Amino acid sequence: EVRLVESGGGLVQAGGSLRLSCLVSVFTFEDYAIGWFRQAPGEERAGVSCIRSKDDRSVYADSVKGRFTISRDNAKNTVYLQMNDLKPEDTAVYYCAAGWGTIPCGGRYASDLGRDDDYDYWGQGTQVTVSS
């Protein structure tokens, strides 16, 4: 069974930073694309960033470009989301998800963050709250 556990959420003032971690318990971690999604109250879940398997190419939503950085450490089965210059509109529950192969991240077009059903496994989420 594949499990994903997010950590690193919390309360931060606008302009501050947080680093989210996603630990994935799977034998072939390097074969999975990992995506970060977020869902604010009353809104649909939306893709934030993803990182591909094999070549580690990353994709970002326009709203976070230049502020968020995704990275992966295959030796630790962990993906990180460094979030800088946080804004109140970044407040949401953040989820990481794992999808096998190259389709989930940048598979259809260069800026493709993937659809929910591209990802096979999901974490429980971590709350990020940015105060103004």
Task: Please tell me about this protein's structure.
There is one protein chain. By secondary structure, the protein is mostly beta strands. It is built from no helices and eleven strands. Strands 2, 4, 5, 6, 9, 10 and 11 form a seven-stranded mixed sheet that branches. Strand 5 and strand 6 form a beta hairpin.
List the helices and strands and how they pair.
Layout: E1 3-7, E2 10-13, E3 18-25, E4 32-39, E5 46-51, E6 58-60, E7 68-73, E8 78-83, E9 92-100, E10 121-122, E11 126-131
Parallel strand pairs: 2-11
Antiparallel strand pairs: 1-3, 3-8, 4-5, 4-9, 5-6, 7-8, 9-10, 9-11
Could you name the key traits of this structure?
7-stranded mixed β-sheet; 48% strand; 11 strands; 132 residues; mainly beta; globular; 4-stranded antiparallel β-sheet
* Helix proportion: under 10%
Task: Return the average pLDDT rounded to an integer.
Answer: 95
Cα shape: globular
Q: What is the end-to-end distance? A: 40 Å
What is the gyration radius calculated from CA atoms?
A: 14 Å
Series of secondary-structure elements, N-terminal to C-terminal: EEEEEEEEEEE
